[in-house]
Structures are given as C-alpha cells and as structure tokens.
Amino acid sequence: MKTEILNRLTKELNRLQLNNKSYLGYPLANDFSFKQLAPFLDLQINNVGDPYTPSSLGLDTKDIEIEVIDFFANLLRAKKDSVWGYVTNGGSEGNLYGLYLAREAFPDGMVYYSESTHYSVKKNLHLLNIKNIVIRSLDNGEIDYDDLERSITLRRDKPAIFFLNIGTTMKEAIDQLDNIKLIIKKLAIKDYYIHCDAALLGIVAPFFNPRPAFDFSEGIDSISISGHKFIGSPIPCGIVLCKNEHKNRVGSSISYVDTKDTTITGSRNGLTPVILWYALKKMGITGLRDRVNSCIKLAQYTEEKLQEIGIKAWRNTNALTIVLDTPNTWICKKYQLAVENDITHIICMPGITKAQIDEFIGDIKKDLSNEIVKSDTNVVYDEFLAANF
C-alpha cells in the first residue's frame, strides 16, 4: 500500500514539474523555494476572524499577517492607520470583499466594469445581487471612457461603483483613474466607490516609471492583489485592503472564538501570511524593484524578437504581457497559452528565462516555415514529454 501511494505521488510530482518548466501563458512566478517553512506544515494554523483582534484560539499567525498588511499599505501609499486588510485565498476573494463593502456603502449602487474584467467578477456580482453594467473596452484593453460616461449619464440617480482593472487578464491594460475622476467631476457624482482589481500589478506597478494612479493616495476605496502571482507561492493567496470606514460597516463580534468577524470566511489560512512575509522579507523593496525591472526587460526582448520574425506582437506601457495572434494548437499546448478569441499572450514572470523565450521564438519560426505539419497538433508536445521524462 505504501509503495502504491509513493508511486502515485511520484507520478503526480513528475507531471507538475514538467508543466512547471514550460508554461508562458499565465501570471505565476516559479522562482521560489519555501523549504525552510516545512515545519509549519505539521501545524493546524487558523487565522480565524479579524487579523487585528486576537481570538481564544492561539494557533494563528496574525502578528505576521499584520506585518504583511502593513507592507502593502505602505507600498500603496495609505495614510498611517487609515486602512485595514487581510490575507485572502486569492484575487477573486479580494474582489468579492471590495464589492461587498461597496454594496454595504451604497445598497442601491450600480457597478460599472469593462468587458475585459476577470471572469470571476460577474460571478461575484451575481452572488452579491448587485445591479451592474458592462462597459465596452478599448482596443488595448482599457475601459471605454466615453461609453462609461454615457452609461452613468443615463443613471445619474444611482451611486456609481467603479470596478477598475489595474492590469486586465489578457492585455494587462490599466484603467486610468485620472480619467475616471474627470467623469466624476464632470457629472457631479457625489456618491461613488472605487475598487481596483490589481491582481498582478498591485505589487508591480508601484515600481513603474511613471507610476500609474491606482492607490490610496489617489482616493481609491479598496484594492485586491494576488500573492501567488508576482511574489510566488505554492498556495493561491492574496491581499485585500480597504479604508477603515468601509470595514467598520460589516464587522461583528463572535463570542465562540472571542474575536471580530470582518472577513469573507471564518477560518482562514494561517500559512499563506507566513509565505508572503518570508518572501517579502527576503526580497525587500530593492529586490522587488529589481524583480520588476528584470521582467520588463525580458518582456521588451520578447516583443522585439517576435516582431523581428514577422509576428504582430505588442504590449501596453511597461507591461509584462505580450499580446499576439493565436499560434498553432501544438504551440498553445506546449507552452500552456491562454487563448481568448483570436489572441493569446505570454507573460514574462519571475522565473521565466531568456532561454525559454528563445525556445518559444524558435518554435514559432518552425511553425511559420512549415517545418512541422500543422494538422498534427500533438507530435511536438509528445516529443517534448519524451525528451524530459
């Protein structure tokens, strides 16, 4: 029985290690190692309830979680003690929380979000039963500001809830907060809420030059960031931050665990705060800046190399994401590319090497020169499997 279990685990590990070598289509860093945190796996760590309120259960890492929250609050230029947050299960939970706070602030509000918004947001809006309008996107993935203004004009009697993308899923487009503010001023909107989905760029864009407007110094109400994307983590996780005034509307005391209930879930993962804390401590601000600049350089290299061989490749300013027409199926399969209609993208995340990009470019060149029979979509990927395992 033990041999059978070991063989099954070995088979699964081999498959995962193989796939970890070849993906280019998803925003996941893979240059991390958390072996030093292994002893924590033998403990049942539960950050139940509010991070800032101890509970009667002492098996938590709330002190470390608060340090992680403080790091992001400072990075996003929040005034001291003006924001609250917690470590989530990922960006989707953070967006759900932001929309939940917006609904509690404006129960009759209308949510405006672009057609380029992450698929989970539609589900979140359905769960929360909030009225919403989908706004067209511009060619580069940003929200169409003219369409947004027209839509709000028709509903000026309702509070406006802006769901902005700070890096869209396919094109890494940033909805321009300054343009949103102009619309708010022009239409004299008094009741509004601004949530930012910064799943990938929340920890990346602060190091862009110029730095885009999307943080608390620019007047946002809440923001969601993924931890497993740019930082890297074996477990999906994220951060949600909001102004204190919004969190105060939803909190309640729970006698069973002697703490406040202010989060989406009751029991919360106590391991991911340790993972994020460990990574942030090791990198520091200087390490993160170098990490961002390295990825931008690789993205620029990739864009140029694709264009050199005649591929219509492009990216938004400073983006780590290069958008291109969808190549043949075997290439999409080999490199685990995300496809939407007739476009795909590759994302130059930490851990992606120049050698991997060169191999991708080489395969594109082979495909263009018809060195590979396009109807046989599996042959090259099968050869790749055989060569590695």
Features:
seven-stranded mixed sheet, three-stranded antiparallel sheet, 12 helices
Please give the CATH architecture of the largest domain: 3-Layer(aba) Sandwich
Biggest sheet, strands in spatial order?
A: 1-7-6-5-4-2-3
Task: Give the termini distance in whole angstroms.
Answer: 25 Å
Q: Note poorly predicted spans.
A: 373-377
Q: Calculate Rg over CA atoms.
A: 22 Å
How many β-strand stretches?
12
State the CATH topology of the largest domain. Answer: Aspartate Aminotransferase, domain 2
The amount of beta strand, in percent, is 5-15%
Question: Shape from CA axes?
Answer: globular
Spell out the helices and strands N to C: HHEHEHEHEHEEHEHEEHEHEEHH
- CATH C-level of the largest domain: Alpha Beta
Briefly note the structural class of the backbone: alpha/beta
User: Helix count?
Assistant: 12
The overall number of domains is: 2
CATH superfamily of the largest domain: Type I PLP-dependent aspartate aminotransferase-like (Major domain)
Largest sheet report = 7 strands, mixed
Q: Residue share in helices?
A: 25-40%
Kindly describe this structure.
- By secondary structure, the chain is α/β, with parallel strands linked by helices.
- The chain has two domains: 14-28 and 291-388, Aspartate Aminotransferase, domain 1 (Alpha-Beta Complex), CATH 3.90.1150.10; 35-281, Type I PLP-dependent aspartate aminotransferase-like (Major domain) (Aspartate Aminotransferase, domain 2, 3-Layer(aba) Sandwich), CATH 3.40.640.
- The protein has helices at 2-22, 62-75, 91-105, 120-128, 145-153, 177-186, 228-232, 244-247, 272-308, 329-334, 354-368, 379-388; strands at residues 83-88, 110-114, 132-135, 160-165, 192-197, 222-226, 238-243, 252-254, 259-261, 321-325, 339-340, 343-347.
- Strands 1-7-6-5-4-2-3 form a seven-stranded mixed beta sheet, with helices on both faces.
- A hairpin with a 4-residue loop joins β8 (252-254) and β9.
- Mean pLDDT is 93; it is low at 373-377.
